[in-house]
Amino acid sequence: MKPKYIAIIIVVVVVLGGVAAIVLINKPSNNPSTNQNSSSPSTNQGGNQTSGNTVAIQDFAFSPSTLTVKKGTIVTWTNKDSAAHTVTGDDVSTSGLDSTLLNSGDTFQHTFDKTGTFPYHCTRHSSMTATIVVTE
């Protein structure tokens, strides 16, 4: 066999191996109990547990793109895309938003315990941005 054909075969094998590795890394979890980055519910100043607001991650966007909640509210993000995404605060030290990579079907919860405006994004897809506004 000619050396140039051997080189082509080696390149094809390496490329196929890389594609297989990427597919395996990004394969959605089949574990229905997966709830990555879930924080335990907290209480607001009145002592009442607050929850219920959700953000869908779908079609490479956060929906709604702006969500207004009261202080003490738990917000849940659910990845409904086939691609993996993150929920990462533009200023993580202020917002506390910093999920791990969320595969399809995974959720991330965060309790907003201080007022303010908290912009966030997906670290893998820079066009995906949104904002949480927390009021008293």
In short:
This protein is an alpha/beta fold. It contains two helices and eight strands.
For this entry, give a set of tags.
single chain, 136 residues, alpha/beta, Immunoglobulin-like, 2 domains, 4-stranded mixed beta sheet, 2 helices, 32% strand
Explained architecture:
The protein has 136 residues and is of the alpha/beta class. The chain folds into two domains: 30 residues; 86 residues, Cupredoxins -  blue copper proteins (Immunoglobulin-like). The protein contains two helices and eight strands. It starts with a helix and ends with a strand.
Topology:
Elements: H1 3-25, E1 50-58, E2 61-63, E3 66-70, E4 73-79, E5 88-89, H2 92-95, E6 107-111, E7 116-121, E8 129-135
* Number of H/I helices: 2
Question: What structural class do you assign from the helix and strand content?
Answer: alpha/beta
CATH class of the largest domain, please? Mainly Beta
CATH architecture of the largest domain: Sandwich
**Overall shape:** elongated
